[in-house]
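Homework help board

Subject: predicted structure for assignment chain

Our instructor gave us this sequence and asked us to write out the predicted structure in token form, then describe one feature. I got the tokens but I'm not sure how to describe them. Can anyone check?
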Amino acid sequence: MGESTPSILELCAGLPEVSYEPGDTIIKEGGLKSILLVMIEGSVQITKQEYEINTVTAPGSIFGEMSLLLNRYHTATVRALEPCRFYLIEDGLEMVKKYPELNLHLSRLLALRLDCLNGYLVDIKAQFKDSDDHLGMMDEVLDSLMNQQVN
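My token output:
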């Protein structure tokens, strides 16, 4: 086998660090920044339209990648639940272009999320396949969403 790929924390060693206290908003839904944050330690809550999506505690977790890669506003809010430290990648897009290992890590992360989401969507399609009401259209809606392409 070939060489092992360095972890995201190893790739970021030496970058500037930022800290947040419990209750601090780290990323705000609707905001736009070209940064990436890589969690060193702590716990955060992710919300979308005030609904909790997830709690993240894993060192190496990345935040801001979707906004950065799609050049869109942040789609969720990230708040500190406890004291947190992150590596700060200020010009995230330039960093992704410059370091193939970071690009590969982000690609694998997004592919994993997409794979999980696809499994969930297939389950939803199966649940509503015989519905005669608006839920029966779920198949068409999900097919449309799953077949989006980058121009």
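Reply (TA_rk): Your tokens look well-formed. For the description, you could write something like this. The beta strands are 17-20, 25-27, 36-41, 44-48, 51-56, 62-63, 77-80, 84-89. That's the kind of observation they're looking for.
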